[in-house]
């Protein structure tokens, strides 16, 4: 009974977190973006010097790629502490178990997406953007799941600060 509840909870989490993390399929129609080796949301030139921050769309794609590999430290580095806490709290409330922090949640959902061979292809529309904030409308092409992703410029790069699972565009 407990195992069935956990498996059911994990399957439900997969649906809930479809806009949060997953693992890439073996082949994709488009190449995945390159992911940084550290949790810093900035690009580096050949000398290792910061060459400028990723824009909001590039940051989201880098997070998506890191969350599907998975590279939990890198993926979690692209999210605010508040967003991480919100996701963990929702998981614990809905499934009655601790996923093991952001790193555990990232690994868990990556394994589920790999198991179900769910595509990482997304369509991203910039709903709004200025120097400090951006809102992206993200659609996962295979499932049709949608989300609004709020982002903030920290000065050293963009991070996700909120995410909703809604297909209603502003």
From TrEMBL:
Keywords: Signal. Residues 1-26 form the signal peptide. The keyword Signal applies. Residues 23-52 are annotated as: Disordered. Residues 23-41 have a biased composition (Low complexity). PROSITE patterns: PROKAR_LIPOPROTEIN. This is Uncharacterized protein. It comes from Candidatus Agrococcus pullicola.
């Amino acid at each position: 009974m407990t195992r069935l509840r956990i498996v059911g909870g994990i399957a439900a989490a997969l649906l809930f977190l479809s806009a949060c993390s997953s693992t890439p399929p073996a082949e994709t129609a488009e190449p995945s973006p390159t992911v940084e080796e550290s949790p810093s949301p900035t690009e580096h030139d050949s000398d290792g010097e910061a060459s400028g921050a990723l824009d909001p769309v590039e940051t989201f794609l880098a997070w998506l790629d890191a969350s599907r590999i998975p590279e939990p430290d890198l993926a979690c580095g692209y999210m605010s502490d508040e967003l991480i806490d919100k996701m963990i709290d929702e998981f614990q409330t809905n499934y009655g178990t601790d996923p093991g922090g952001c790193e555990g949640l990232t690994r868990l959902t990556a394994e589920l997406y790999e198991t179900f061979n769910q595509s990482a292809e997304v369509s991203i529309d910039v709903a709004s953007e200025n120097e400090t904030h951006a809102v992206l409308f993200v659609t996962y092409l295979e499932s049709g799941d949608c989300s609004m992703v709020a982002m903030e410029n920290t000065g050293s790069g963009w991070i996700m600060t909120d995410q909703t699972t809604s297909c209603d565009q502003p």
